[in-house]
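Following up on my earlier thread - several people asked me to post the actual chain instead of describing it. Fair enough. Here it is, all 661 residues.
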Amino acid sequence: MNDLFDKSKKKQKKSEYSAKDIEVLEGLEPVRRRPGMYIGGSDEAAMQHLVAELLDNAMDEAVAGEANRIEIHIEASDTVTISDNGRGIPVGPHPKYKTKSALEVIMTSLHSGGKFGGQAYKISGGLHGVGLSVVNALSQSLKIEVIRDGKLWSQNYTKGKPTTKLKECGPKNKRKGTSITFTPDFDIFPKDARFRPQQLYKMARSKAYLFKGIEVRWTCNPTLLKKRDTTPEKDKLHFPGGLLDYLAYKMETFAPLNVTPFYGQAPINGSDGNMEWAVSWSSDSEGFIESFCNTVPTPLGGTHEVGLRNALTKGLRGYGALVNNKQAAKISSEDVVGSASIVLSVFIEEPQFQGQTKEKLTSPEVTKQIETTISDYFDHWLSGDPNTAKILLEEVLDRCLNRMQKRSEKNLKRQSNTRKLRLPGKLSDCSQRKQEGTEIFIVEGDSAGGSAKQARDRLTQAVLPLRGKILNVASSTKDKMYANQEIKDLIEALGCYDGNTFNQDNLRYEKVIIMTDADVDGAHIASLILTFFLKIIPELIEQGNLYLAQPPLYRISKGKNTYYAMDEKDKDKILKKHFKDDTGIEISRFKGLGEMPPSQLKETAMNKTTRQLLRVTLPKGRGNQIEASKLVDNLMGKKPEFRLAFIQEKAGNLEQNMIDL
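Reply from S.P.:
Thanks for posting it. Predicted structure:
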């Protein structure tokens, strides 16, 4: 073996490291050098975060009681304007930097602003004094206008540096506020990165829900809205009901257990903060938690969520003990929040977040404060409505016993005492034990799963929601495939494949039905699932167990007459055949299975007497089957040149109206 430390060998030239190699980054240069430290990256997602920073600043003015209107406008040139009618950023000379205005100090210096001392902003989402300066540093151009003391002031910047002096532009009587217009620097962000109206509209909408006293005015250049994008061109967002309105919006397709949600707002015990919450439970849908701190979304949760979970869990255990239900002592937070839809918003002083993007609240004292605040209200809510409390306790105990059973057993009995299976948590199984007449619907996402669970026949129909587009097995290794949770859930639910062999007798359902949205995205997801079955469990296709559901794309109605169309061509055919007069016809396009009312989904895609199913088959003959498998490899595999060749070969056969753009 060669001696790595053999000094007889020729030494490599050492790199020099001296005092001249020490750099000091000044002003906003650290932001431009390392944007990921400030906005989480330099990709398209990080670019959307620039808007969030400015929106948070505007919301801070509202929370401080100084603003009641925010305007956000998205232009086609990837230029965004955000304005508020707050106090306006101070423009006078800064006492420490006398040659600069306070505005310029805020725009060009990290860790500057009015949110450190607690006098100007007692509670705010901005804490580090970097938000506005970071946006400035990462913008190709930025213009800020301030109306303060009846005067309009303006200044322009490029890449964080002022290109004009702060100048007075005339009187603006009876008006106040700040307006910022910026265009991102595409030397920092990818050239093809774009602002996404749907994402920004959702962001603006959530802010309006979080603070009842604010109106958010949204405008967007119509050229930015895609064909099937439901984002409005203009909208006024104002929700007097606060989080109660938000919960109702989020649960439109759910069937809640409790007619009256557990809702409240209160001062936080042991602090000067306050909080608002809205909680509802559903037996047919997986739950969710959306939390916020000082109007900043915290998708990774944090100490405020822990406090809420603790309060709900202890409260339900306590109620169980009150009604002499000994099983309630075994309830865990997982059982309580598993089917709960929760929206939580807290306003606290000096919150501690994980990183500048503030995705997780880490203030340690908040857990106990939230827990003690919520506990009293939850106890009163349970005791004030015994009927709802009884239903909720039974639902949570069902989840608890199911969890304990899965933990104690590796497999569950299905058809015999000798064969056991482990079932995935998101599977809503049918109650019939024998295979004959049973079906499993494979759907994409919790929203579609929620609608399907409400539309199904519980005796014979099971529903398995998969999260997003499943792994493309044609371009993945076996190790990667078996490590994928969605694939593991699918295999476990079917029970007929052990990783090596297929056993028809162990198949738990007579029909396996792929049910996806009736648009191009749904077709893509269906293609990925079909690829999985063809490459991994082709016997399921050969035995005739695999089907495709046919949910409609359009609903056409006039008076009492209603028809459903599968596509544009089918829609035109129905209009021509059944509607001689164009007046009074209502045509609605379904955005997806999750947006369909359960009754309509049942009628069109799940009711055995009214639906249409397509059986998936393989071509006859071994040679033809090999060719089919090869075609799937070419179209779904790693080499894009095969797909391009196929598209070029078949493009001439397509009719224009068959292309979904």
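The longest strand covers residues 139-148. That should answer part of your original question.
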